[in-house]
Amino acid sequence: MTVADWALRADGLAFAYAGGAPTFEDISLGVRPREIVALLGGSGCGKSTLLRVLAGLQPPTAGRVQFLGAPLPEPSPRSALVFQQASLLPWLNVTANAGFGLDFARQPKIARAEHAQRVQDAIAAVGLAGSEKRYPAALSGGMAQRVALARALARQPELLFADEPFSALDAITRAEMQTLLVDVVHRWHTAALLVTHDIDEAILVADRIILMGGRPGAIVREWQVDLPRPRLADGEAVSKLRLDILAALQGQRTTASTTTESTI
Ligand SMILES: Nc1ncnc2c1ncn2[C@@H]1O[C@H](COP(=O)(O)OP(=O)(O)OP(=O)(O)O)[C@@H](O)[C@H]1O
Ligand SMILES: [Mg+2]
User: Fold this and answer.
1) What separation in Å is there between the alpha carbon of 42 and the centre of ligand 2?
2) Does residue 214 come out as left (phi exceeding 0), alpha (psi in the -120 to 50 range) or beta?
3) 19/138 Cα distance (integer angstroms)
4) Tens digit of pLDDT for each residue in 88-113?
5) What are the recorded GO MF terms, alphabetically (predicted)?
6) Distance from the CA of 44 to the center of ligand 1, in angstroms?
7) Burial, 72: exposed, middle or buried (Cβ in 10 Å; 0-12, 13-18, 19+)?
8) How many CB atoms sit inside 10 A of residue 230's CB?
9) pLDDT tens per residue, range 128-166
10) Is ligand 1 within 6 A of the CB of residue 57?
């Protein structure tokens, strides 16, 4: 594949916070158009830092990032980000929050009618039609995260960056949101890079799983997940993959843990 075949391509990436040891070194990875990639790893291994570098929010100390075949000096308007907290503006209703930023200077100019249509479509896609006039104080955590997802979709991104977007939600809402994410990513024809420390989330959502670990952080292993959807958490193939990932995790840890928890 040439670089133009990737939505996102990173080669030889390294990063160190000022005056600190390297957070990660020599990371090369790619996300194909319409592909959902999960970046999985334990707490503190550098996933969020890597995501910020990949999204153009932070320059790498070495290596390069290319987005849609071009170097990425700053965040691209053709990508969108979703974080663990929905970060809604409390004085704006659902519609205004979902449309927030769409008319910022670096965004492509769009006509007012298209702006309204995009926001309306995005709100409907995340299942919030009818809640347009609500304010953040009247939304549950899951609804707030739906608004954050709608705000990302309204940009019609080529790539959605998501950093543990569901980890603050209860298990049932999280499962709903995982299904929703796969659904909207497919319908919107966008690619997604999902940071998670939840093995089951990675298996249920991703087309490919990249395991990150070590100090400094590096890519430990990668799995192509060709299982049909919807994937059941207790399916045989899912259980086998889950064990394989756990074994890889334990193998790369200096002090092997005996945990069988799916959250690392
Ligand atoms: N702004 C910062 N300045 C200095 N060091 C930082 C900063 N942000 C993160 N770090 C350090 O960089 C390392 C990687 O942090 P990062 O947040 O990328 O990890 P993570 O894998 O996302 O962890 P988690 O799963 O807990 O979110 C950690 O050791 C952290 O303490
Ligand atoms: Mg993080």
Assistant:
1) 9
2) left
3) 44
4) 999 999 999 999 988 776 777 888 88
5) ATP binding; ATP hydrolysis activity
6) 5
7) buried
8) 11
9) 999 999 999 999 999 999 999 999 999 999 999 999 999
10) no
